[in-house]
Model the fold of this input.
Amino acid sequence: MEIFLTIVYLLICIGLIALVLLQSGKSAGMAGSIAGGAEKLFGKKKGIDDKLAKYTEILALVFLAMSIIMIIFLR
Done:
């Protein structure tokens, strides 16, 4: 059971890292921070970036749940 949970946890970690790296970068500097905030507020993310962001959120929640499960079962 311990080995199975560890393998699943590692796969989730690798998937989360890959999803974060696949997302496009934001603009740098002061102008990027203002425009980035406006895009987030008004929802201008489109296409693949929107899907990657959604999958990243879901996988982050799975990562959190798996971390809690491993703490409980692997004491």
About this structure: The first helix runs from residue 2 to 22. The chain is about 80% helix and 0% strand. The chain has a mean pLDDT of 83.
